[in-house]
Design brief:
The complex is a heterodimer.
Chain A: H1 3-27, H2 31-36, H3 39-54, H4 64-87, H5 92-106, H6 113-119, H7 137-149, H8 155-173, H9 189-206, H10 211-225, H11 250-263, H12 265-276, E1 279-282, E2 285-288, E3 306-307, E4 310-311, H13 312-317, H14 319-324, H15 328-342, E5 344-345, E6 348-349, H16 353-364
Antiparallel strand pairs in A: 1-2, 3-4, 5-6
Chain B: H1 3-8, H2 12-31, H3 46-63, H4 65-84
The chains are: A mainly alpha, B mainly alpha.
Chain lengths: 372, 86
């Protein structure tokens, strides 16, 4: 081999080594800070979402998925800010009013218009019915966290919250599968985890015991909703029979693990183990495979794009259980991926916009909300 | 051709990529980052999405291809100098 070719080989090797070492280092610079609860990083992202909530009201959402996104943006803002109130009690007086504002925004009738259209009835006008309306648990959970941290929580909103939680408790106890419908004929275990979380947080905020319904839900999750082979929850099921309508998937399991943490630590830990077992790692970057072994499928509104088998949503959602249950290595690997593709700048992640930043505020600060 | 230009020429392309990335990033952050590529109203602004995707692609190139190219050319430059010595 000539000296020239040897030099090229050495140059290529060094170039690859620099990228292999430098890229994970660069994208992981803030990972430890988020994992350890760096107050400056948390504060900067919180300020972004407070500015969003302070901004002029958004236009009413146009269709089901736009509505879901709007609701989730306000809900996750409320959850993230509430988690910061729990993590930093000295911030509570300042942040609690914004928690309530974001939670109240998520509960506005136009935010649930997508569900009203799907059912042909408003969830709050049909609390006596057996229809699940599980999508509204996202707002109910946000309201519960607001009641937990904000002593000035509006009494009229508290009454509506009490009535909604009572309806969810009755519907969930009556369900042999531990599932209630989100839309007619469609039940999502992830949404029902949000229902359980909302019920649990209501109990913490008001002192009312919901132990029976939460025990029923936890037992049914283990018996019916988790796929034994993969450890992932089935994405969509029949509420009455528990028949699967979709595959076990990472996106649903990641978010369900986060929600379950509000209600039952052991269920959440089991779901966290399931979703983190589906982590794929390359060059120190982690991502969660969307489908359990033996299942394949395309990306959809739940998963976002699925590229090489891994999904955007599952990867982001898994940050919460990774942090809450102290999977430090997995958190660092997942964070590097979020940093690489999230375009961090000025305390926010520029690619995701409000919904991405709201989600990351809640997911990157997960932990203080865990059930006792 | 001056000696300085000869020395710098291998690094002009990586520098141009970084400069374009810096410009696209600043423009994206200034004009579109409040909404991101996804918006809570569900709308997808094509111009914003294109700019966002361009910023992302340039970020990845800047963090992978650019440092690799710089290291490769630095090593080859050192090798060429050593080889040209009498």
């Amino acid at each position: 081999m000539s000296r020239n070719w040897l030099a090229r080989l050495v140059a290529c090797g060094l170039a690859l080594a620099v990228v292999a070492l430098g890229l994970p280092w660069w994208c992981g610079r803030d990972a430890d800070g988020w994992y350890d609860g760096d107050a400056d990083a948390q504060r900067a992202l919180a300020e972004q979402m407070i500015a969003f909530e302070n901004a002029q009201a958004q236009a009413p959402p146009a269709d089901r998925f736009a509505g879901e996104w709007a609701l989730v943006t306000h809900q996750m803002t409320a959850l993230g800010l509430a988690q910061l109130c729990l993590a930093h009690p000295s911030w509570r007086a300042e942040l609690a009013p914004y928690v309530t504002r974001a939670a109240a925004n998520s509960f506005r009738p136009e935010m649930r218009g997508f569900g009203t259209r799907a059912w042909g009835e408003d969830a709050m006008a049909s609390l006596g019915s057996a229809h699940g309306h599980a999508y509204l648990a996202y707002a109910a959970l946000a309201l519960g966290m607001a009641r937990l941290v904000d002593p000035q929580f509006p009494p009229d909103l508290a009454k509506q919250h009490d009535a909604l939680i009572a309806a969810y408790e009755r519907r969930l106890l009556a369900s042999p599968t531990g599932l209630i419908e989100t839309y007619p004929g469609e039940a999502f275990p992830t949404d029902v985890a949000a229902v359980a979380a909302a019920i649990a947080v209501h109990g913490r905020a008001t002192g009312v015991s919901h132990a029976a319904v939460l025990a029923h839900w936890a037992e049914r999750v283990r018996a019916v909703q988790i796929d034994r082979a993969s450890g992932l929850v089935i994405q969509r099921m029949d509420a009455a029979t528990g028949a699967p309508h979709d595959a076990p998937r990472g996106s649903g399991t990641g978010l369900a693990a986060y929600f379950a943490g509000f209600a039952d630590r052991e269920v959440a830990r089991q779901l966290a183990d399931g979703v983190l077992a589906h982590e794929s790692t390359r060059l120190g970057f982690g991502a969660i495979r969307e489908y359990g072994d033996g299942h394949t499928g395309p990306g959809d509104v739940d998963s976002g794009p699925v590229v090489l088998g891994v999904s955007v949503s599952a990867t982001g959602f898994a940050l919460a259980p990774a942090r809450a249950f102290r999977h430090e290595q997995a958190f660092r690997e997942l964070y590097r991926t979020v940093d690489l593709f999230g375009l961090p700048a000025g305390g926010r992640f520029a690619i995701g916009g409000p919904i991405g930043n709201a989600l990351l505020l809640a997911l990157l600060t997960s932990g203080p909300e865990l059930a006792p | 051709m001056t000696r300085a230009w000869r020395e710098l020429r291998p690094f002009v392309l990586p520098a141009c990529v970084l400069a374009v990335y810096a410009i696209v990033r600043v423009v994206y952050l200034a004009s579109c980052a409040d909404d991101g590529v996804l918006t809570p109203s569900g709308g997808l602004d094509r111009a914003a999405a294109l700019l966002g995707v361009a910023a992302l692609a340039l970020r990845i190139v800047s963090l992978t291809v650019v440092p690799a190219l710089v290291v490769y050319r630095l090593v080859m430059r050192v090798h060429a100098r050593r080889a040209s010595r009498p």
